[in-house]
Amino acid sequence: MAYSARKDSPELPDFSLLKRLVRDQLIYLLEQLPGKKDLFIEADLMSPLDRIANVSTLKQHDVDKLYKVEHKAIVSTSDQLCFLIRPRIQTVKWICDVVNADKAVGKLRRYKIIFTPQKFYACEAVLEEQGIFGDVTTDEWAFYLLPLDEDIVSMELPEFFRDNFLAGDQRWVSTAGSALHLLHTLYGPFTKVYGIGRCSKMAYESWRELLEDSEQKPRQAEIGNVFLIDRDVDFVTPLCSQVVYEGLVDDIFRIKCGCVEFSPDVTSSDKSVKVMLNSQDKVFNEIRNEHFSNVFGFLSQKARNLQTAYDKRRGMDIKQMKAFVSDELKGLKQEHRLLSLHIGASESIMKKKTKQDFQELLKTEHSLLEGFDIRECISYIEEHINRQVSMIEGLRLLCLLSITENGLLPKDYRSLKAQYLQSYGVEHLLTFHNLKQLGLLVEQQPGETLTAMESKVGKLVNDKTAGKLTDAFSSLAKKSNFRALSRKLNLVPKSDEEYDLRVPRDMAYIFSGAYIPLSCKLIEQVLERNGWTGLEEVARLLNGHEFAVTGNSGADSKTKNDAQRIILVMFLGGCTFSEISALRFLGKEKGCKFIVVTTAITNSSRLMESLLGNTL
Amino acid sequence: MMKKSEEDEYWNSSKFRAFTFDDEDDEFSRLKESRQAIRRLAEEDEDEDEVEKVSWSGEPIGSISWSVKETEASNQRTDREPAFPRITTDTPTLSKSQSGSSLSSLSSLFKGKTRGNFQNISETPSVRLFAPELRKSRTDTKDSDGEFSPEETVRRMQHGKAVSLEKFRSLQDKLLLLDSAVLGHHGNVITAVLIHLKRTLSKDVLFAELRSRQTALRHFVQYLTETRDQDLLLELLRSLNRTEDVALLQYREQLSLSDAPRRRDFLKTCLSLPFSADDLAHIQDQHDLLDRQILIEDSDAAVEREGKLDVFRKFPRKASILNMPVITTLYYCCLYHYSEQGTFSSPSSVRQTFKLSEKQYFVTALAARAKLKAWTDVDALFSSRNWLGFTRKRAPISFQRVVDILHRNSAPSQVLQDYIGLVDDPQQRVSLASRHRCHDVVINTYRDMKDRQLLLGYRAKVERGSAAERKIDELLSQPQIRWKN
After folding, report:
1. Most B CBs within 10 Å: which of A171, A257, A353, A361, as the mutation test of the B interface?
2. Tell me, what DSSP letter sits at residue A65?
3. How far is CA A251 from CA A191, A221, A361, A367, B18, in A?
4. Whether residue A343 sits in one domain with residue A264
5. What whole-number distance in Å separates Cα of residue B22 and Cα of residue A389?
6. Confidence at A325, pLDDT banded by 50, 70, 90
7. Which residues contact B104 (CB under 8 A, 6 or more apart)?
8. Quick one: average pLDDT of A206-230?
9. Residue A468 contacts residue A479 (beta carbons within 8 Å)
């Protein structure tokens, strides 16, 4: 098990360069406002900032006090204020209030706004409207990419998903293009770019325009291939419960910027502990991609080994003991600490999951994926809602039902919606509206029952029905066609076969052998075929927007080098840890390596929460 | 790793008050390096005048330009083959036209593009897009020196250059500008143009043009949402006949009303909004429920203060019932007002008024009564008489789930075993019973299955000398049982 890559596996590029570059640029920007200044930081920028700089870095560049942006009156006495923010209108309005309040009392200060990753005209328009354009200087900090691990780079833009897919606002398209451009410049030139999805296509175009305006110095490519994929190509995968260790930890404890906070019940002490979860953590690195059922066995084996290592002390003489203490003990202690943390986390996960009757939940999800016993699934979901088990989970199951069944029967939709509103509040009318707009939770349109029947007899959906929803201009919703896709791509392995989770045979292991993630399967297929040839029908069922292009600037594209086996996958709208695990598995199988670039790490809860409409 | 956690603590502590640092600069030399590196980058940003020069082609890799600088596209595009191809299927080629070219050539491009191709990417009925073109008279298209065509303006904006939009005064020019922005896929620029249009066009004209430009429309809706320009947004949606959006947007206002009576009154006004019949019924329910909650809250708060009723003392109310969902309200009523009949707070009245199903009522009442350990009430929930007058325990959900609910409310195993015994499937019954240590149920099940081996096996699991062990021994010694093994 664990992480034994094939011997000929290529080396991953070094992404720490990205951190150095943004740190240097931040320092430069801070120096643009010489002298002591107070720095206000947008709340959700704090963790990303923490990963690339620390307090002393800021301190060295004349930052005096640090505040979190809280949208209320400030107490700073400094005569220079610097704001490090996301380009959000409400934050800029708050800054205008701060400046105008100063003006009202005749207080003179210098102000600087640093927008990251870029500024928007709409924000500058606010400055203008509020009469403080010119009173503040503005800058951009091009912090596009934060490496979370050796193979994960995040744009840390969770709002990308809602803005782009729900609101249909393309503000982040060029951001994605710029991020891609940066990667191309540092680690390219890319040889081939594949993609699917409307946003992917636009991001590609945006990057290509940047490319035309710049010139690339010929260099040895480190990344050969790129795959761009929109989150709305595959909603099924992020809606499933995660059962691979890293995903499970994210589902339960929420990993934030590569860091998790384990509560006292995990640490079995009175304090909670923050732990970085990445390949540096030797214990974590070995279990992160494992199905949860294997984790306990692995951890206890590890604990036994540790005991043996400690036991070596017995019967040592002074000299040996001295050597042991200086050479091994520190490592052992470190391992000990990590081991006990992960054992604690696993226990806590077990406790939470048995309380929730996790098995039955998984059974329902698997039935939905297979298209089996749908009535039973509906009654399970109904009961789940009636009992007010979890607002988010109930919604997630409804969406999974809708997306796998290509919409709910009108009577089911009405009844489940009514029961949901009764359990969680009528304000969720707004949530249902959002979900409908996105196509995540919809009623089957009359006439589509034909599709359901057709799919039963194994025929393919005809053009008329497949195109129906995409024709609706006012909605960005797309028809999922999950059943047909699942058949075409063999996403659901036959259930009568035993699946040994210890020796995974395909990517389905990340869902207990029940389902191969659609997103990753697509990537596999396209890479295998070197394009979309033979996948025309699949692409059509996915509502099109697929592409495969070859660049001609890559001078060394003829030479078969390692870069061709490094594939950068960019998820627009977020990706899950389970998908990353699946790609790592695929990489091992094929002797290549995947680098995941995502607008943010997501999971079913984050996805659902971003679509809630019941709060202001 | 632990160093990180210290820093995290720093962030946490800075939430409320600021930290002060001493000013010391010991890593000066390192700083100088990074400053120099960064300055190299910055130069790229600042030399606006030198846009035509591709001066940094030989720059070392480390000095990647961050905001990619503008160069005259026309120069480069003609003498250099693009490194990567356009995706030709449905990407409009608007920006490929020669810089400074007149708009008529632009229009020919538009015309040349087939509608099918175009539609895919912008989802705009293409016919509408041609309109500004067709209306445009040729004399207007002449570019005066130093002025940029719409596409060039959009390009400059995409690269973050300051441009003046003031010269786009005719409707055609404005719309061309907007359409060019949409074709560029840069949401930032689309919104910028829309802000300009909002300032310089009457609402009616702007709304009418947006009607056929879905991408631009979505950006405008998002912009108005973010600037919280509710009035204009409502007007826009009304003019587009998006009645459901209009209704929901107004309905949403309630979220800002924390005062319950005011919220109730507001909900009443929502009943005249153009909702679907189904949704209207939900909102009616929401209104009626809040009305009822206000009455219950008033009276219960008083009762609780007086401290006369036991149940409020033993189970103090954790939160107000105002604005809670109906199921939560029912739970509350089952906790505090279970035996009432005909009052606003009686569970049966809540159930009837809001047409809750048997299942909904059952699971809620079960959880509430179990919470209070009112086992007789729990028991009564299951009673049903058949036509012969026998009582039999029935439930609208599986007994397995019943056990789960009872267990969550920490029912003792004596209570649990009654219900575990009612689980149909012997396998499930046994597994539940052993999980909850209800030995009798396990033993009886094995007895009924006439499975001596399993019984023997279970004997090893129960405590030595316990009643369960004695029972097993007794059974095993009974000669009249015909064991199957």
Report:
1. A171
2. E
3. 36, 36, 14, 21, 33
4. yes
5. 52
6. confident
7. B138, B141
8. 85
9. yes
CB-CB under 8 Å, A89 with B18: no
Which residues of A fall within a CB distance of 8 Å from B54? 215
Instruction: Tell me which residue in A355, A473, A614 faces B123 most closely, judged by beta carbons.
Output: A473
Domain that holds residue A48: 32-143
Q: What is the mean pLDDT of residues B97-117?
A: 34
- The structure tokens listed for A381 are 């979901």
Count of CB atoms within 10 A of residue B281's CB?
A: 13
User: Is the pLDDT higher at A74 or at A431?
Assistant: A431
Assess whether A139 and A36 both reside in one domain. yes
Q: State mean pLDDT over B296-324.
A: 85
Tokens of B134: 């067709």
Q: Is A549 helix (H, G, I), strand (E, B) or coil?
A: strand
Average pLDDT over residues A576-582: 96
Which candidate, A395, A372, A371, A399, places its Cα nearest to that of A384? A395
Residues in A touching B279 (Cβ below 8 Å) = 429
Give the pair of three-digit tokens for residue A498: 């035993």
C-alpha to C-alpha distance for A159 and A279, rounded to whole angstroms: 27
Beta bridge partner(s), residue A39: A66, A82
Do you find a cis peptide bond into B274, omega within 30 degrees of 0?
no
For residues B454 and B448, the answer to whether their CB atoms sit within 8 Å is no
Q: Radius of gyration (Cα) for chain A, nearest Å?
A: 26
Q: How many residues does chain A have?
A: 616
Q: Residue A410: CB partners within 8 Å, gap ≥ 6?
A: A443, A444
Beta bridge partners of A111: A81, A136
**Residue at A605 is within a domain:** yes
Q: A308 with A319, same domain?
A: yes
CA angle B4, B7, B9 (to 5 degrees): 115
Mean of pLDDT values over B276-281: 93
Structure tokens at A321: 């003991």
Parallel/antiparallel/unpaired status of strands A566-572 and A546-550: unpaired
Interface size between A and B, measured as CB pairs under 8 A: 278
Q: Within this chain, do residues A125 and A157 fall inside the same structural domain, yes or no?
A: no
pLDDT digits (tens, 9 = 90+) for B312-336: 888 888 888 999 999 999 999 999 9
Q: Please indicate, yes or no, whether residues A537 and A569 belong to a single structural domain of this protein.
A: yes
CA distance A25 to A31: 10
Tell me how far apart the alpha carbons of residues B273 and B291 are, in angstroms, rounded to a whole number: 19
Give yes or no: residues A127 and A43 share one domain.
yes
* Residue pLDDT, tens place only, A127-139: 999 999 888 999 9
Amino acid sitting at position A264:
P
Least confident of A232-236, A459-463, B218-222: A459-463
Mean pLDDT in residue range A404-411:
92
**What ipTM score was computed for the predicted complex, to two decimals?**
0.88
Model confidence, pTM:
0.81
pLDDT band at B104 (very low <50, low <70, confident <90, very high): very low
B354 CB neighbours in chain A (<8 A) are 422
B125 cis-preceded (ω within 30 degrees of 0):
no
Query: Shortest Cα distance from B54 to chain A (angstroms)?
Result: 8
User: Which of B19, B42, B397 is nearest residue A383 as measured by Cβ atoms?
Assistant: B397
**Average pLDDT estimate for A56-61:** 87
Average pLDDT of B480-484? 81
Ramachandran sector of residue A481 (left: φ over 0; alpha: ψ -120 to 50; beta: rest): left
Query: How many domains does one find in chain A?
Result: 4
Beta bridge partners of A593: A566
Q: Does residue B274 or residue B435 have the better pLDDT?
A: B274
Q: Which of A143, A167, A189 is the last residue of a domain?
A: A143
pLDDT of the residue at B39:
42
pLDDT at A442: 93
Whether residue B270 has pLDDT greater than 80: yes
**pLDDT tens per residue, range A542-564:** 888 899 888 875 545 455 577 88
